Amino acid sequence: MPQERNASHQILTVPNAMSLLRILIVPFFAWRYLQGHVAQAAVLLVVSGLTDMLDGLVARKFNQITDLGKMLDPFADKLTQGVVALCIAIRFPAIRLLLLLFILKELLMLCCALVLLKKHKRPCAAKWYGKVATVMFYVSVSAIVAMDWVGLMKPNTFNIAAYIMLGLTGLMMAYAAFRYFQIFLSILRDGEPEEQPQITRRG
């Protein structure tokens, strides 16, 4: 429909503003967290997580799904996840390996998306397993930041709760990466994903 085509090319929308806000929060989170102001960093992370949950809902409810949003939202997700993981890895070397795996997984997915765009193919829409992995990541890192805030996390020590949360999140992220890679190969080969995605903008 003409109206939907016009909507897809809009730039100034509430969901896009939320995604931009998440991108702007990233350096402030890193600055406050690495300076030891954990409470302030935790608040910024909560705000980022809330906007991440709301922007897709707003986009669908008010027909504000845009081409820019389809790129901006996942970029904000990956940037936030990567920087938060890096900051936690710097502060807590004991869980550095698991966090490094998260970063490598996100870089792999980003490379796949860039390959598709270079070949003028559209990356697939978000799937439920990607959304679940994102939510689990936010819950895990928020819990770790909260434990750090109240003094339950110490550098260079083994924290069983942190390992369990990150381990479960890592398994979900690995599953999501495997499924997305299957779809990536399908699009690369045939030009269409093996599953027809619902029209959505985030996850």
Q: Total strand count, please?
A: 0
Strand content: under 5%
Q: How many discrete structural domains?
A: 1
Mean pLDDT comes to 77
CATH class: Mainly Alpha
Please characterize this protein's 3D structure.
Helix content is 75%, strand content 0%. It is mainly α and 203 residues long. The chain has a single domain (2-190), classed as CDP-alcohol phosphotransferase transmembrane (TM) domain (Four Helix Bundle (Hemerythrin (Met), subunit A), Up-down Bundle). It is globular, with a radius of gyration of 18 Å. The two termini are 25 Å apart.
In short:
The protein has 203 residues and is an all-alpha fold.
What are the SSEs and their pairings?
Blueprint: H1 2-8, H2 14-34, H3 38-61, H4 67-91, H5 96-118, H6 128-149, H7 160-190
Helix pairs in contact: 2-3, 2-4, 3-6, 4-5, 4-6, 5-7, 6-7
What key phrases describe this protein's structure?
globular; Four Helix Bundle (Hemerythrin (Met), subunit A); 203 residues; 7 helices; mainly alpha
